[in-house]
Amino acid sequence: MLTFAEYLLRGTLAGAVYALLAAPMSMLFATVRTIDFAIGGYALAAAAVAASIDGPQGLVLALATAAACAGLMALIFVALKRFGCDDGIVYALASFGLATAIASVVLWSWGAKSFVRDSNAVFWSIGGIRVAQQGLFNLGVATAVVVALHLVLQHTSLGRMMRASAVNAVGASLAAVPVQAIQTGVYIVGGLLGGLAGLLVLYSAGLDFSAPLGLTLSGFGAAILFGIGSPVRCLFGGIAMGIAQAMASGYFSEAVSAMTPFLFIMVVLSVGRSGAEALAGGRP
Amino acid sequence: MSLVRARPNTFLVILCMLIALPIATRNPVSTDSAALLGIYSLLALSVGLSYGQAGVLTMSQGAFASLGGYAAAIATTKFGVPPFLDLLPAVALPALVAYAVARLVTRLPPLATALLTLSIGSVIAIAIRSAEGITGGYMGLAGIPGLGPIRTPPAYAWLAWAMVAFTVLLYENLVCSAYGRALNVLRHDHARATADGVDPPSLISAAFAISAAIAGAAGWLYAHYISFISPESLDTHLSITALLMAVIGGAEFVLGPILGALVLDSLTRLLPAAELQGFYYGAVLIAILLLARRGLLGLVQAAFARLRTTGDAATETAVTLSAEGSRP
Asked: Which range marks the domain in which residue B30 is found?
């Protein structure tokens, strides 16, 4: 019983990071109907910078780097729109290109080494289960970010404009909502959150240049598990995925644990339930 | 002459092969490049068929190639199946997996399809890594025998490009057939295709399975050429590279993926560091999406169309002027 509870708790803490990757995906899908494959790349860029520069200025620069990378993606998005492209798959492919480029630049500049920072590992005991303080910090940050996003989306005029852009972009623009500025902003906020997730991973398990794709897919799995439309669902999706991974690792094998995010995506998309209908809708 | 008219793409590939390969196989480095480029072209063609014709944006071709390579390696090293005969499992296994997967994919839009195929590719890669007893795990399988009389790198280069030419011929036959036309309609309008009597799930599944079979054949050739296969040999990175090749060359054109493979491979040689390959691929992909969304061949086609329009307009003006000049 203690083992089960331990997996539950550790999975919850590990899954919190996925929520930070899932929330911007959810927002971007709601407003632009696409996926930013470069989210994992923003996390890697932030982690690489923070691993190289000590102190708070390193963390600030790391987040600025992630935001700058996302800003570049936003520029590509705007340029594609200017060239008459209105296809979510093309934006997604472009973000794939950016993710590949970011990983390559990190490999070229920092090499294939892993980025990991010692978080002065302090462990707490909760009901006899040893838990890293960093894990609780990750959960706290993810919860705070998700709640803040929820409040902004549901209770502010900016959130109303975002929701209006998501539901009907043409109608929103006729009502003087700056749809393109909102979509661009969502890309940049996504970069910041991706960068934040990268920093949390840096101080927890660490990551290397090959991590972006896995991080993106884990975030995507968390985003669609309970429906892609809400940041709060992303938090629960991330936690559920973390728990599933911890259970798979404990009761089965590391291989099954590594497969878990992909299996989640396959099951949710092929079943087309839990709010993923928008993504898993019919072909034209 | 009939081949030139009926199957111009196949003719072009054979012509280029007969001109370029004797030159390329003069030194070992370019021979190796030619053989590997042939294998990459096969993979890119498999993406072209899947994405360009069936509309299934696949990111799992590397995994299918890996399945083909491992099937060949296991059949020859563990069960003593003679080389060439192992092509059958190398092609059949990925095709079967893809057919089963396609049943999930057929109703999904491209974005979801891409994510699903990427996930399937990752699951296959993890399964291969963890099945140590059969696949050798991270260490892979070594000592895969050569293909009978085909032992030297030049022979492999010729075989690779012969397979490319054969695949282009089959691809062109498909595009010109009723099935190809049905796929074309299906890519643009499901409802219309269904109304025309097409069964979308069956057709898309078949196209995806054929594309996986081509990827499996590429993996088979890779395994025999290198005589070693490991999880890193044909990984997710290769799936992405094959997709980029197809998109850059023009996925909807028969020769687009091959052109994309040639362009990417040629320009990669100019890079100052191998680590920057991903940066270069990403930058080229973004540039292509911005400037020529239908790929390089789409750009060429648009240029020809513009020239033709200008030519037609000039002819029309000349006819009008001469008609006006002939008035009394």
From this structure: 2-238
